[in-house]
Design brief:
Blueprint (H helix, E strand, L loop, with lengths): L15 H32 L1 H10 L25 H21 L4 H8 L5 H21 L19 H6 L14 E5 L6 H10 L3 E3 L13 H9 L5 E8 L2 E9 L5 E10 L16 E5 L4 H11 L12 E8 L2 E13 L21 E7 L3 E10 L13 E4 L14
Parallel strand pairs: 1-2, 1-3, 6-7
Antiparallel strand pairs: 3-4, 4-5, 5-10, 7-8, 8-9, 8-10, 10-11
């Protein structure tokens, strides 16, 4: 004998005990209806599997990253939230369409005369041809080759717009940069000596110089430290800040004249506190920059790229990862090893979901080396620090609380 369905208005009975009994009966009826609906849907989907596939495709939960909102237009200046990869692809399509239209258009007599007079102004044409060749080479580097297992999060620094190259010529230049040489220091009267030494193990070719805590010692400012470093062929200064004997901030100055990036540090965990951690070696690590898509994101990724040598030492099998997600940069350092695949593990698949040939029985194992922490970009100064930047163009970008009012808009 089934339950008698309870009307909704009966749940508002005056008697408390009667109201509780009615509510329990109502819940049982509701659960029974849902169970019957689920079983009836299962029978229909067993007869027609396409119904199950359509239901699962419709019920996929969208994350905030998938709901991300971009700015409209072709403005690729610093601070604009535009996807540079999609913007470049759209521009290439428009340029290709214009070339096809120009080739298909008939030639007039004036055009033929201009072609005959093409020997004039050769110097200007040579410069234009050189710039066009450089732009074409940069665009060719930006278009990556197809991979069997392409990464959907890797950052392509060749997509940097020309506006960034004009503002920061020392960062975005076709001339190969010098080998990184980094000076690591701390804030005044700091106690983070062990943490500063850990940063020296993370950044190759780095030296730690503590700032004097003596009461009669000279308190060198950041500008004086950068002037000292630039005269000794240092390429960057990394300043570690603290509060309550914990790392709370990180400032990176690109020498000789900036820019300066200010980050806040959260969730600092030393490598020795991580379960199953390893010990780092002196090999140059491989650098992974993930999910930097906007002009500000590419600028942030570029400042970190300048801290590492361009030729990693593969025999060390060390990877330094900077993963950007919702404007938080997760910093991790691992050592990898190739091992045999276990019976419970899945094989490596390609972009279309098929198993990759040649690596069916191989998997990669990771061992975290540490330290582990999270960065958040707060300010970008054109010169050396806040005091060293002058004029209206001093602060290139600064985080404000109103930027996180819409949770679907991200700066990096």
């Amino acid at each position: 004998m089934g339950f008698k369905k309870v009307p909704t208005h009966a749940l508002k009975a005056a008697n408390k005990i009667k109201r509780q009994e009615l509510y329990v009966q109502h819940k049982k009826n509701k659960d029974k209806d849902r169970r019957d609906e689920r079983f009836s849907r299962k029978k229909e989907e067993d007869r027609n599997p396409e119904l199950r596939a359509a239901r699962l495709a419709k019920n996929v939960t969208k994350t905030l990253d998938e709901k991300r909102v971009w700015d409209d237009g072709d403005d690729d200046s610093l601070g604009k939230m535009v996807d540079l990869h999609k913007l470049q692809r759209r521009r290439l399509e428009e340029a290709k369409a214009e070339e096809e239209a120009a080739l298909n258009a008939p030639l007039d007599e004036d055009d033929e005369d201009e072609e005959n007079d093409s020997m004039l102004d050769t110097d200007d044409e040579d410069e234009e041809a050189r710039e066009a060749a450089m732009e074409k080479a940069r665009a060719k580097r930006a278009r990556r080759d197809n991979s069997l297992a392409p990464s959907t999060t890797s950052t392509n620094l060749d997509l940097a717009p020309s506006s960034l190259a004009l503002k920061f010529p020392t960062l975005f230049s076709d001339i190969p940069p010098p080998t990184p040489k980094i000076l690591v220091t701390t804030s005044l009267n700091s106690t983070l000596h062990d943490e500063a030494h850990l940063l020296c193990t993370m950044f190759p070719n780095s030296n730690y110089i503590p700032r004097s805590a003596h009461r009669f010692g000279h308190k060198y400012s950041l500008r004086e430290i950068c002037k000292f470093s630039a005269g000794r062929d240092y390429t960057a200064v990394v300043l570690l800040k603290e509060d309550s004997k914990k790392p709370t901030g990180l400032s990176i100055v690109h020498l000789p004249a900036g820019p300066t990036f200010h980050f806040t540090i959260t969730n600092w965990i030393e490598g020795k506190k991580l379960p199953g951690h390893g010990n780092p070696t002196n090999h140059y690590p491989e650098l992974l920059l993930n999910n930097f898509k906007t002009p500000l994101g590419l600028l942030t990724a570029k400042i970190f790229q300048m801290l590492f040598p361009p030729a990693p030492e593969i025999q060390g099998r060390q990877v330094f990862t900077l993963h950007n997600q919702r404007d938080y940069i997760f910093v991790r350092r691992h050592r990898y090893v190739f091992r045999d695949k276990r019976a419970t593990e899945k094989s490596v698949v390609t972009s279309d979901g098929k198993e990759m040939k040649g690596v069916e029985s191989i998997r990669a194992g990771l061992q975290e080396l540490g330290p582990r922490f999270t960065l958040k970009l707060r300010r970008v100064d054109k010169g050396i620090g806040r005091a060293g930047s002058e004029g209206d163009d001093a602060a290139q970008w600064e985080w404000k609380a109103k930027m996180e009012k819409d949770r679907k808009r991200f700066n990096l």
